[in-house]
Amino acid sequence: MSSNKKKNLTPTQQSYHKIEDKYEMKRPVLQNCIRAFIIGGLICTFGQALHMFYYTFFDFTERSAGDPTVATLIFISVLLTGFGVYDRFAQFAGGGTAVPVTGFANAVSSAAIEHRTEGYVLGVGGNIFKLAGSVIVFGTVAAFIIALIKTILIQWGGL
């Protein structure tokens, strides 16, 4: 709480905040960051191994092996979400499971599972894109801004 807000508190509220601070559980931020880094890296390593598997053992080039790799990662993420495993795994791993493809697939499939009792059109169809819509909009806007900056730098900077 900021110091300006603390000044406006009554003595009873200030003493309550002191007691609250005393018993508040401290979060292990460094441990959580390390865990998220390791788990996210393991997910990416698994994705890279899948990528190498597809272009080594199947008729894919290194460039075209990305499509089945992404599809497989999405399938595994949705399957684990459906069985309730991904959420428990995410509780342990924290932000490491938010690796773009698997985290996005988890979020979309979780919304579909949560609202399936409301029907396919209004429940699943209406709620599945609550998160997806914002991600797509902000992703598109960010891509546009980056492309605009790159174009300006190329035109004026000679990059």
Q: How many beta-strand runs?
A: 0
Fraction of residues in helix:
over 70%
Strand content: under 5%
Shape: extended
Specify the biggest β-sheet. Answer: none
Mean pLDDT: 85
Q: Indicate the radius of gyration in whole angstroms.
A: 23 Å
Number of helices, where a helix is a run of at least 4 consecutive DSSP H or I residues: 8
Q: Unreliable segments (pLDDT under 50, ≥5 consecutive)? A: none
The N- to C-terminal Cα distance equals 46 Å
Number of domains: 2
SSE arrangement, N to C: HHHHHHHH
Write the layout of secondary structure elements.
Blueprint: H1 3-7, H2 11-23, H3 29-57, H4 66-82, H5 85-93, H6 100-114, H7 120-127, H8 129-157
Helix pairs in contact: 3-4, 4-6, 6-7, 6-8
Explain this structure.
It is a single chain. With 159 residues, this protein is mostly helical. The protein has two domains: 37-127, no CATH class; 128-159. It contains eight helices and no strands. It has helices spanning 3-7, 11-23, 29-57, 66-82, 85-93, 100-114, 120-127, 129-157. Helix 3 packs across helix 4, helix 6 runs antiparallel to helix 7 and helix 6 runs antiparallel to helix 8 (129-157).
